[in-house]
Write a structure and sequence with these properties.
GO terms for molecular function: peptidoglycan binding; serine-type D-Ala-D-Ala carboxypeptidase activity. This protein has 460 residues and is α+β, with helices and mostly antiparallel strands. Helix content is 35%, strand content 19%. It contains 14 helices and 13 strands. The protein has helices at residues 2-20, 25-33, 74-87, 101-104, 121-129, 134-145, 148-161, 184-197, 266-280, 312-315, 340-349, 354-362, 391-405, 437-449; strands at 47-52, 58-62, 96-98, 118-120, 209-212, 215-218, 230-238, 242-251, 254-263, 381-388, 413-421, 424-434, 455-458. The strands form four sheets. Strands 2-1-9-8-7 form a five-stranded antiparallel beta sheet, sandwiched between helices. A four-stranded antiparallel beta sheet has the order 11-12-10-13, covered by helices on one side. α1 packs antiparallel against α2 (25-33) and α5 (121-129) crosses α6 (134-145).
């Protein structure tokens, strides 16, 4: 029976190839009409998921939590941190991105910029979403992180904040690295986060082509302008990963993010994605959008890169922490704690203002982003404001914060939660009593305006 089905699918594939003779609407439409909604038979690399981007409901999944190589889907996180830096005022679209020898030496696909030369941040963004330029991704990473290694640690930190518990980054472009892993579910979360958190930048993912010098660089995403409603996001391929694609689709009042990983060819990947969209988009909600992914504080360069001590964003940075037992992947922890002397001076200057002291202390407490908001809806939400070695200090911190902050926490219940990391015990400082993610998210937003670290967490 299996052989018969395999032969039938092979015949269909040959038929599609014969009538299409290349990329375009014919091949994709033919695949959808023939109902290729199932992944290729006997393809151990395949993983896929479709998520309702309004509600977080998973409409389809297969091997969604299995570890996979992200390939150039990695650049989605590079772009996320670039958009974050733009919004934080750390860079502008006209900021020059200089290519080091390391960046210039990256293998294709690439822009081919020589070492010492530069392009603008906006040109780098466009080169990532269209050509998937490896050299530009590395140069952006070095600009934002001081080095690509530091930037990879920042990427992993941000992944934890977004609830991507099974993702580890080791470079900015997705070139082969055995330690760089992700899952289809994590990539769906990142796709949703890009849409939710940066609607003003998201238009870049719809770019069909852009002019760079005398070149007209075309987008590698073949579904743009071909499948109704597709407005991005990113393709990827390495020999180890197979052909990957994350798609955002918005049509007829419905919205989904779909992921296909491990395709046996670009055409097979595109056909599978088109079939998933055709089948599952009609099942998506037409209701109001919901905030699905907690954003978290701005991630900055590790302390060893000499971030200015008075940089408020640097003070509020969140470091990568231990993962839940369900995702035991090693994480590089960037060191961003202020020197003890700087902390002592800051604390002394704020003693006359209790709220200022709470804010100052909050800037130095590690907020370990574990079990953050995900694409799967869940009841029972809490917010986390710190993580520290002393339970007494954690409780005191919570008590002081509730007293001084007032209404956002008036009905919240303070508690601590213990976890182990590298043989040491830590205590998460949390407030519970939030009915849903919206109320938890709103409370966090209020605290952040007072420069108090916070993120929303699904209760265990």
């Amino acid at each position: 029976m299996g052989v018969t089905v395999r032969q039938a699918l092979l015949g269909i594939s040959n038929f599609v190839q014969n009538i299409s003779r290349g990329r375009g609407k014919v091949a994709i439409i033919a695949a959808v009409m023939l109902g290729l909604a199932s992944p290729a038979i006997a393809n151990p690399k395949y993983a896929g998921i479709v998520v309702d981007a309004k509600t977080g409901k998973v409409l389809y999944e297969e091997n969604a939590d299995a570890p996979r190589f992200p390939a150039s889907l990695t650049k989605m996180m590079t772009l996320y941190l670039t958009f974050e830096a733009l919004d934080a005022g750390k860079i502008s679209k006209s900021t020059r991105v200089t290519f080091s020898k390391h960046a210039a030496a990256e293998p294709p696909t690439k822009l081919g910029i020589g070492a010492g030369n530069s392009i603008t941040v906006e040109q780098a963004i466009l080169s990532l979403v269209t050509k998937s330029a490896n050299d530009a991704a590395t140069a952006l990473g070095e600009l934002l992180g001081g080095s690509e290694k530091n930037f990879a640690a920042m990427m992993t930190t941000k992944a934890r904040q977004l609830g991507m518990g099974r993702t580890v980054f080791r470079n900015a472009n997705g070139l082969p690295n055995d330690a760089q892993k992700t899952t289809a579910r994590d990539m769906a979360k990142l796709g949703i986060a890009l849409r939710e958190h940066f609607p003003h930048h998201y238009k870049y993912f719809s770019t069909r082509s852009f002019a760079f010098g005398k070149q007209q660089i075309r987008n590698h995403n073949n579904l743009l302008g071909v499948v109704n409603g597709v407005d991005g996001i990113k393709t990827g391929y390495t020999r180890a990963s197979g052909y990957n694609l994350v798609s955002s689709v918005q049509a007829d009042g419905r919205s989904i993010v779909a992921v296909v990983m491990g395709g046996s060819s670009g055409r097979a990947r595109d056909n599978q994605m088109a079939a998933l969209i055709k089948r599952y988009l009609p099942n998506a909600s037409t209701g109001r959008d919901q905030q699905l992914i907690a954003r978290g504080p701005v991630v900055v360069q590790p302390r060893q890169q000499q971030i200015a001590a008075n940089d408020n964003v640097a003070k509020a940075a969140v470091v990568a922490s231990i993962l839940p037992s369900s995702a035991p992947i090693p994480v590089e922890r960037p060191s961003d704690a202020l020197p003890i002397t700087a902390y002592a001076q800051e604390k002394s200057s704020s003693e006359r203002d209790p709220l200022a002291r709470i804010v100052a202390e909050s800037a130095h407490m590690e907020v370990d982003p574990v079990h953050t908001a995900s694409a799967t809806p869940s009841s029972g939400w809490v917010i986390q404001v710190a993580s520290m070695p002393s339970k007494t200090e954690a409780l005191r911190f919570l008590e002081n914060m509730k007293e001084k902050v007032g209404s956002p926490l008036s009905k919240a219940s303070a508690f601590t939660e213990t976890f182990e990391h590298k043989g040491r015990t830590y205590h998460r400082a949390r407030f519970g009593g939030f009915d849903d993610k919206v109320s938890a998210w709103n409370a966090c937003e209020t605290l952040k305006k007072q420069k108090i670290q916070c993120f929303a967490v699904v209760a265990n």
